[in-house]
Amino acid sequence: MFKWLREKLLGRKVLTRPEELPPYIIKYFEEATEEQIAAAEAEVSRAYPRNPEVALMYALRVSKMVPKIKTFKTLVSRWNVASKGPSGVVGLCAGRSSKNYDRTYQFLSDLYVKRFLELARETADKAEITAAKRKSLSAKQKAYHEAARKIVEAAGEMSLPWNREASQWAEYLRQRARSITDD
């Protein structure tokens, strides 16, 4: 069982129980592919129908793309898929009865928060560039206000612990808008 783990993830340990999988996937998350996680998910699902570990593996699998996400909209959408899955059958919410739930939730929330903050920085950088290209005072200010709005809206659509960071980025952008003068 779990042949893909033995062959593809360093062959360090033979896993025989479903509850061993989420911690192992978390440990080797960067090395595992989405396909490998899907294969383990399918294997456990066949052998142990309705096992909460399948729900957690689903959340891990659909989160493999997070580092490559380019927009807040996609990040929010992916978080909703990882959290609730289709029809609430899989995803973090469906895996709450697993002893691995807290660890998996913490790992994934850290992953999403990290990408959120990277996108916030990218949004602020783009606002700086856009504002520099604008001629009028109001157009420069608008570039900063639009960036702040994007960050705040994205943070509001998700239930992760990044509201403080989102507020800090939004406030930074608002201060930049206020600092613009006719000089």
Description:
With 183 residues, this protein is an all-alpha fold. It has one domain. Helices cover 66% and strands 0% of the residues. It contains eight helices and no strands. It is elongated. It starts with a helix and ends with a helix.
Percent of residues in helical segments? 55-70%
- The radius of gyration over CA amounts to 20 Å
What is the number of beta strands? 0
How many domain units? 1
Beta percentage is under 5%
SSE string: HHHHHHHH
- Please give the largest β-sheet: none
List strands and helices in order, with pairings.
Elements: H1 3-8, H2 21-27, H3 34-47, H4 52-62, H5 72-84, H6 101-133, H7 137-156, H8 163-179
Helix pairs in contact: 2-4, 3-4, 4-5, 6-7, 6-8, 7-8
Care to give the gist of this entry?
By secondary structure, the protein is mainly α. The chain is built from eight helices and no strands.
